[in-house]
Hints:
The complex is a heterodimer of chains A (570) and B (209). With 570 residues, chain A is mostly beta strands. Chain A has helices at 2-12, 32-43, 149-156, 254-264; strands spanning 48-50, 54-56, 61-62, 66-69, 73-75, 78-79, 83-86, 90-92, 97-98, 102-105, 109-110, 116-117, 121-124, 130-133, 136-139, 162-170, 181-191, 195-206, 219-228, 233-246, 271-284, 289-302, 326-339, 350-366, 382-398, 401-415, 464-475, 489-491, 498-512, 520-521, 533-542, 545-552, 561-565.
Amino acid sequence: xxxxxxxxxxxxxxxxxxxxxxxxxxxxxxxxxxxxxxxxxxxxxxxxxxxxxxxxxxxxxxxxxxxxxxxxxxxxxxxxxxxxxxxxxxxxxxxxxxxxxxxxxxxxxxxxxxxxxxxxxxxxxxxxxxxxxxxxxxxxxxxxxxxxxxxxxxxxxxxxxxxxxxxxxxxxxxxxxxxxxxxxxxxxxxxxxxxxxxxxxxxxxxxxxxxxxxxxxxxxxxxxxxxxxxxxxxxxxxxxxxxxxxxxxxxxxxxxxxxxxxxxxxxxxxxxxxxxxxxxxxxxxxxxxxxxxxxxxxxxxxxxxxxxxxxxxxxxxxxxxxxxxxxxxxxxxxxxxxxxxxxxxxxxxxxxxxxxxxxxxxxxxxxxxxxxxxxxxxxxxxxxxxxxxxxxxxxxxxxxxxxxxxxxxxxxxxxxxxxxxxxxxxxxxxxxxxxxxxxxxxxxxxxxxxxxxxxxxxxxxxxxxxxxxxxxxxxxxxxxxxxxxxxxxxxxxxxxxxxxxxxxxxxxxxxxxxxxxxxxxxxxxxxxxxxxxxxxxxxxxxxxxxxxxxxxxxxxxxxxxxxxxxxxxx
Amino acid sequence: xxxxxxxxxxxxxxxxxxxxxxxxxxxxxxxxxxxxxxxxxxxxxxxxxxxxxxxxxxxxxxxxxxxxxxxxxxxxxxxxxxxxxxxxxxxxxxxxxxxxxxxxxxxxxxxxxxxxxxxxxxxxxxxxxxxxxxxxxxxxxxxxxxxxxxxxxxxxxxxxxxxxxxxxxxxxxxxxxxxxxxxxxxxxxxxxxxxxxxxxxxxxxxxxx
Lengths: 570, 209
């Protein structure tokens, strides 16, 4: 309790952030390369030229470039070339049409939103300092040697060729079998006339590692992708990997899983190792949709529990990481994503659809213990197909209210029984928060499909799952964050920072096979809705942090669960 | 339960009021007198007032400000996104010239405001009313929603990693509680916003006959 109080006390101490005001102002001169461009274009050929006011009226059709010094330039007609305005304001009327590019220095443009301008438009507020030499102009050399290198770096960063000798990125969330996984290695990107090539090579280091490669502690991830086309086209890639992956990751975000593990010693996922390679082909470029097909060979193995550092609850034990079916599999997959959300982090409207189908064929060399009665196929080859479908619809009911719904279906589609690492479960704060995650329960557990006590870690064992979620979000018109400058999300105007959330969830998992009326149902049968777990809840979203309470409806004996989410629930 | 108390305490504490240099302000003008086809104009203020943003800017991290203006149409049951427009402002400090360069980019329109000696004068270049050609195309009841993300950009992901590792404030000085508080604020900002700050504003409603 003393530690709790101390943490609260420390956190509540305000900080005086030094305020610094600066008021001086001086506008930088025109970049040197722009000065050169202007001089060359003014001194070059032009279809229309003026050193003072020039008006292109509506009926006029200029067959080439228009260059103006001092101006103003008024355009109402058609210009087939480029426009250059030096130290001049430009007025573009609704009837104007410009086929080329527009460059304005030392002036403003009025009406650019209403006319038809087919090329690009560059506007420099700085004036050009020059002297006249007959019909020509000469830029004054006493200007500072400024250039636009910084701007080019900004504009073209990661658009042209680039490489990094040592790229350091986090390879996944903090977890109980790796600690913090980090990727280190070079990255190379080359842009060509027909597309691009990218190559990533990384070693995967883990803070929970003994750095003994014989035990598979040091992984790798090598990836290359060739893209045919720039803005849209086909990507062909190959990948060789030795990584740790979660059995399922659809319910909570990586960030939430990592923080729960690091802070509270609670890991909401189970993990297994994947060692192999795959090739893939992806269609990219469409604004809202992507489609990827892949095929590979990989060896799956269990991953033993480590004991990484946690901030709290160091005296508690981690939940064991369940064993998985070990073996070598050929895996083919097809994944479709459709996303029209207004904002992935704070969606107010739109669709989000994920659908993928996976076919696996291989040999299980070591079968993990499970509550499921499983038999090895007579041929020794396990051949399965599974699918996963997640559809969400976000509806804005008004400026301050929304109603969102989600449906998730996943599991076995055909073939032999699913390997343990290809099964699902549905409970805990990411799906049915009224029910504790993988907690001990008597009898059949329709969340994880477990009916045998004692399997370490209580792995997901369902062949199929179904989940429906609905939530209403309404504005409380409270300005919670106010002027707290570190808070990442602020709402202004009538919409407050605090949103109240009312939600309900229903779902369950089941096995397929000979019906037993509790956990197992026939292939084409959906369990009765009365057997589904359900909960309702209420929460507050404080500018991005959600604090919720959920109560089971289908099992009233379950206590109220309190939980925190750092993203929308879905 | 104790964990949630502690977490909430940390989050609450991290959000305790700081001495801000000015509350960021956003405004979207509602079309007047039926001048709907003109679109609207957006005015902002104090987007660079955050002390950490300023410090990062002074230390060479480009500040990127992404504007997203949405036009919503009220329907019988749900509101629909009628249209949207995006643009960016970049503020870059040039240490050799000791100037803050300001650029605005909207589609293929590229505006260079030049370099300025102070952050305040640099911000003044894009604070003023900015006309956005986003307007209704049919009758109905509409409103605008403006979303502004302020993000400290790095030259590469490696820089971002180093930025994370070394923090934005450099060596810790003074009161360790202050340092902890400041660190929590930074941590919270990174965790929830990926190192960005988001501001939203809604206009009043207007009717297109």
